[in-house]
């Protein structure tokens, strides 16, 4: 060790001793001045060798001593902030890496404990995210301004090393706070300024791949529209593979949390430059392939499907007919595949989504063909989707290319061709001859109604018979029983021959009245699995059975004596019916989970017998018996999952309505086996029905019989329900699983001792 270096250690030791103990401001000032020589900032700096040794061996110790003495009273030992300025110069003029580490170490540790909370806050608040990141953003803008000035020849030609490091570190670790400062400033600075735009382009092009995704997602979220995004990014997606993957794959296909304006900014950015537009066409192809994938439809949640649908329509809004022409066949194939799969879905929201997208997309992709039209009730989502696609040019107006292809919302299937053919014409129905019904046309007896509905060519009499039938059945039950099976057959096959307002409701109410008056469930359940019935007719059977079962189980009904061998109605809820009985189930769940008394809970009113008791088995068991036997035109475990979903909901409703009946235990056991067979079904509507059925079993079968006859089944069901509650992609399924678990929890105290004995 040379003599110059050996002189540093004693000086530093003496200085540290003085700084640690002295309360004399002048003495402290003199000591700091002597140490300042080793930083090269004094009038007579120390030799370079001593400066190097001080920086390498002693600088951190000095800084720790200074931080340890830091307090408001210590800084005020000298007037006018002399001591504070000199204290700060050691951190600002010495080796920056050591100064930063000492400050972080002091903030995290107890070095400032003697200064108290108020003193520590002097250093700590600038480092909190809400203060630090905006400050960092302002510094980035300042550095960029210096760079722009250098390009103009106004400022220095190069940036300092510290500014470059600050800029790169900030861009590599973007945050909402930084971008919240950067994006508004850069939006204003890049407006009509080519230099600022070039600086921004170069800046994002130099971002490392590991930080590209965070930067791009932050910019797309913060930028106000595609024009701003284009000014900030330039043609980054054409130069960076990572950027292209993030903006054309990850944001669109692997995530769905982004807002509609963000999608519009991103896809609008791709559309704004001729070099980027081919990417937009490719994105549209891939989006429609995903949209048309039956597997994706089965496994993706509704929000995911809506996200992709919005992206498809936004792409179509930006692309012209000429750009779409070369890809028309592929786009149409994907579109029609997606429409078909969604029309087969058991969820009304999914069917409506398919119809809405198909209407808009078909017009944009194939403007020469007839526009595809569906009959459905608009909701907020469908209106939003329709608004995302700009109207086609006047030359491509759908009204110039023939009449629309009409599809039925009720059946969910096209009533015309869905392949854009214009061979058929729809003739408007002539209503000029419509006349008010005359009272003389109204039949007076049930048999007259049957005759009018089967053989009459007088359409006024036909309509009058249909409107009068329900009332005649209720008023003349004996006459209705004489022709009950024939009447049920006529109504089941009845087709609308004239434009009768409320035809479906009139037919359904008459069928329900027949089943309630003289239960013909055996006939209806046998027809459910018969050949040559449409899916609509099979679902009508389920609806009628459910409504009739509700009526028969209604408290306070005047008892009627069903004929021997005649069962009673059962059915599953269509959308409104399902919500009605499920609301009752949920109310009972809530009431049961609030009780803590021992023994079985009381189940509703006991004032009158459950008339459904005599016929419940005729409703239930024929429906559940043959579900796994496919027919030529009917396969519940195959493509007819919509009907399967309705069947599952029907069985759950019948189970719930069979409360206090003698056959409830047998029904519960059969239904639980049925649920266990289908518990992993891919359709969300089916799974909802299965979960509702579990709750119906727990509510309708007496607790002591559940524990005596089904303990193993219930123990097996509990982990399955817990898994559904945590991991099922459908929110309604998760909610239903939680409700079923709550009911199981009530049985847990009794179930566990029984299973262990």
Query: How many extended strands?
Result: 2
The coarse overall form would be: elongated
CATH overall fold name of the domain at 611-752 = Leucine-rich Repeat Variant
Q: How would you write the strand order of the largest sheet?
A: 1-2
| The CATH top-level class label of the domain at 611-752 | Mainly Alpha
Low-confidence stretches: 155-163, 391-427, 429-439, 559-578, 594-607
Cα-based radius of gyration, to the nearest Å: 39 Å
Average pLDDT works out at 77
Amino-to-carboxy terminus distance: 86 Å
Q: Major sheet: size, sense and barrel closure? A: 2 strands, parallel
Number of helices: 39
Identify the CATH architecture of the domain at 611-752.
Alpha Horseshoe
The portion of residues forming beta strands comes to under 5%
Structural class: mainly alpha
* Percent in helix: 55-70%
């Amino acid at each position: 060790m040379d003599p110059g270096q050996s002189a540093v250690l004693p000086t530093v030791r003496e200085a540290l001793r003085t700084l640690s103990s002295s309360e004399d401001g002048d003495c402290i000032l003199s000591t700091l001045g002597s140490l300042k020589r080793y930083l090269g900032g004094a009038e007579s700096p120390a030799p370079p060798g001593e400066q190097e040794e001080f920086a390498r061996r002693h600088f951190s110790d000095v800084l720790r001593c200074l931080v340890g003495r830091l307090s408001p009273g210590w800084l005020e030992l000298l007037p006018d902030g002399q001591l504070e300025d000199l204290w700060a110069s050691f951190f600002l003029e010495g080796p920056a890496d050591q100064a930063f580490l000492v400050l972080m170490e002091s903030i995290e540790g107890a070095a400032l404990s003697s200064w108290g909370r108020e003193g520590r806050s002097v250093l700590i608040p600038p480092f909190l995210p809400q203060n630090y990141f905006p400050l960092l953003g302002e510094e980035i803008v300042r550095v960029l301004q210096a760079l722009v000035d250098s390009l103009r020849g106004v400022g220095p030609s190069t940036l300092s090393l510290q500014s470059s490091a600050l800029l790169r570190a900030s861009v590599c670790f973007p945050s909402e706070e930084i971008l919240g400062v950067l994006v508004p400033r850069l939006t204003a600075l890049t407006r009509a300024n080519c230099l600022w735009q070039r600086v921004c382009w170069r800046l994002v092009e130099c971002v490392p791949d590991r930080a590209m995704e965070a930067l791009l997602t932050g910019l797309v979220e913060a930028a106000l529209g595609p024009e701003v995004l284009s000014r900030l990014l330039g043609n980054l997606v054409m130069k960076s593979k990572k950027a292209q993957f993030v903006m054309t794959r990850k944001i669109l296909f692997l995530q769905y949390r982004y807002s509609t304006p963000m999608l519009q900014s991103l896809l609008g950015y791709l559309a704004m430059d001729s070099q980027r537009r081919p990417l937009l066409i490719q994105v549209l192809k891939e989006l429609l392939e995903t949209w048309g994938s039956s597997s994706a439809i089965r496994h993706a949640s509704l929000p995911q499907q809506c996200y992709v649908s919005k992206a498809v329509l936004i792409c179509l809004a930006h692309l012209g007919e000429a750009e779409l022409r070369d890809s028309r066949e592929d786009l149409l194939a994907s579109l029609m595949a997606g429409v078909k799969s969604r029309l087969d879905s058991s969820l009304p929201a999914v069917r409506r989504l398919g119809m809405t997208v198909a209407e808009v997309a078909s017009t944009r992709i194939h403007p020469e063909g007839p526009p595809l039209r569906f009959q459905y009730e608009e909701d907020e989502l469908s209106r939003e989707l329709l608004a995302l696609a700009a109207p086609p040019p006047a030359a491509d107006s759908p009204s110039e290319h023939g009449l629309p292809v009409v599809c039925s919302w009720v059946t969910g299937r096209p009533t015309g061709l869905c392949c854009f053919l214009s061979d058929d014409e729809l003739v408007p129905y002539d209503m000029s001859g419509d006349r008010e019904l005359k009272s003389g046309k109204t039949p007076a007896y049930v048999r007259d109604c049957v005759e009018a509905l089967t053989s009459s060519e007088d359409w006024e009499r036909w309509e009058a018979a249909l409107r009068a039938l329900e009332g005649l059945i209720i008023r003349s039950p004996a006459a209705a029983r004489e022709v009950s099976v024939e009447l049920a057959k006529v109504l089941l096959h009845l087709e609308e021959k004239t434009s009768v307002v409320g035809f479906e409701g009139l037919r359904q109410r008459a069928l329900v009245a027949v089943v309630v008056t003289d239960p013909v469930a055996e006939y209806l359940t046998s027809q459910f699995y018969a050949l040559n019935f449409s899916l609509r007719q099979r679902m009508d059977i389920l609806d009628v059975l459910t409504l009739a079962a509700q009526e028969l189980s209604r408290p306070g009904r005047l008892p009627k004596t069903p004929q021997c061998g005649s069962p009673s109605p059962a059915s599953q809820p269509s959308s409104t019916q399902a919500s009605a009985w499920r609301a009752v189930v949920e109310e009972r769940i809530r009431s049961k989970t609030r009780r803590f008394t021992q023994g079985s809970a009381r189940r509703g009113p006991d004032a009158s017998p459950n008339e459904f008791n005599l016929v419940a088995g005729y409703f239930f068991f024929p429906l559940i018996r043959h579900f796994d036997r496919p027919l030529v035109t009917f396969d519940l475990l195959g493509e007819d999952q919509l009907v399967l979903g309705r069947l599952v909901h029907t069985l759950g409703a019948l189970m719930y309505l069979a409360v206090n009946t003698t056959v409830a235990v047998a029904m519960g056991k059969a239904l639980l086996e049925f649920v266990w067979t289908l518990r992993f079904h891919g359709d969300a509507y089916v799974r909802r029905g299965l979960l509702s059925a579990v709750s119906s079993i727990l509510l309708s079968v007496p607790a002591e019989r559940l524990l005596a006859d089904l303990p193993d089944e219930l123990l097996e069901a509990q982990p399955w329900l817990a898994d559904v509650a945590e991991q099922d992609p459908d929110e309604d399924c998760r909610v239903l699983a939680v409700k079923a678990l709550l009911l199981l929890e009530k049985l847990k105290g009794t179930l566990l001792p029984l299973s262990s004995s």
